[in-house]
Amino acid sequence: MRGRRALSRGRRALSPGPMAPETPAQGQTPAQGQTPRYFTWDEVAQRSGREKERWLVIDRKVYNISEFARRHPGGSRVISHYAGQDATDPFVAFHINKGLVRKYMNSLLIGELSPEQPSFEPTKNKELTHEFRELRATVERLGLMKANPVFFLLCLLHILLLDVAAWLTLWLFGTSFVPFLLCSVLLSIVQVQAGWLQHDFGHLSVFDTSKWNHLIHHFVIGHLKGAPASWWNHLHFQHHAKPNCFRKDPDINMHPFFFALGKVLSVELGKQKKKYMPYNHQHKYFFLIGPPALLPVYFQWYIFYFVIKRKKWVDLAWMITFYIRIFLTYVPLLGLKGFLGLFFMVRFLESNWFVWVTQMSHIPMHIDHDRNKDWVSTQLQATCNVHKSAFNDWFSGHLNFQIEHHLFPTMPRHNYYKVAPLVQSLCAKHGVKYQSKPLLSAFADIVHSLKESGQLWLDAYLHQ
Q1: 167 lies in the same domain as 266
Q2: Pure H helices in 10-97
Q3: Where along the chain is composition biased (Polar residues) (predicted)?
Q4: How many domains does the chain have?
Q5: In a 3-state reduction of DSSP, which class is residue 260?
Q6: Which helix (H) or strand (E) holds 160?
């Protein structure tokens, strides 16, 4: 009864008679023949989770996800980030078998938008959204969402060959400084390239079924890298759902405790007279606590904390196979101390590579609170590209096409360059800024943006 009363308060029946049929209980679909329940955007927006109830809209249908969020396969946070909002485009973007998912959604259906309600909230660009959906239909019709299995097989083979080459370097040439350094570099390449490959499987962009993508994802991230798939999913899908949105994108959780990010948040922080760090020097200490430290200092221990706390025993088993393999491979050649030195050298080099590549397309971009913009505007204001070249594609795992990747997260990466001209045309037509820059300029922009936001914080801190 409590669930019925809670739902009926926000509901507006449009049945012709004075007595509408009894509202179905919370989380149940209206029975056949009952009058559908209608809602306004204002009523949906009030169920954003602040008062425990969470509703969202997909194709004008209203779903109550209050209880389901905890069981959501992608994690409770990623779906909750769209509570009180339209989630049609992220729903389409993230799921490769939408028909199957919709069957499970029926039990969450509580009604639909009233006929007089627009299909989009007033904060969203209607024309841009319509044309993007037409573009997506074109992309699917052209087969650009289909993967080339040979491409990903070659990616895996080149990782495995480099892994063997690293061991052979020490076995053939000994453990002096030069072979040790060369082995470290080769293993760092292996770890970074395996990171880009696990990203493909994590995004379900290789196989047609989620099952096979998840299985190989466990192998690549667990056995080849020693990290948990569940941890990656938990963080990364939130980033894609709301990139550069404070308290929704975990990739910018370093604000405000380590860095002041973005023009809006930095000024806000200064006005609040908050100073966790000397942010006006953050473009300098970034070189100490950013690229060198993220993986060896933070991620290395946090991944074990994550899997144990959340009881992800399958992930832990996959991770243990990595540590057993690398221990048995290198301890006989280097001894325990030499092995530990090699391991942390690899994590150090990998961390520098990983941070510069992943942050070059986001940190210099707009960072703010969630303003509930349309899907295209949300992704474009938070991402930029780096020019295409054979080296840039390999070096970044095709994440130099961040714009296309964020708009079509399940698209196989070898097709990003094919869809890029279509996306550029869409952006030009609607006045949406599409940024692409050289690799070194993208790296420099990270430092420049940190310096700028640090100065904005200082000015607001001292004078506002």
Answers
A1: yes
A2: 41-45, 76-80, 88-94
A3: 25-37
A4: 2
A5: coil
A6: helix 149-173
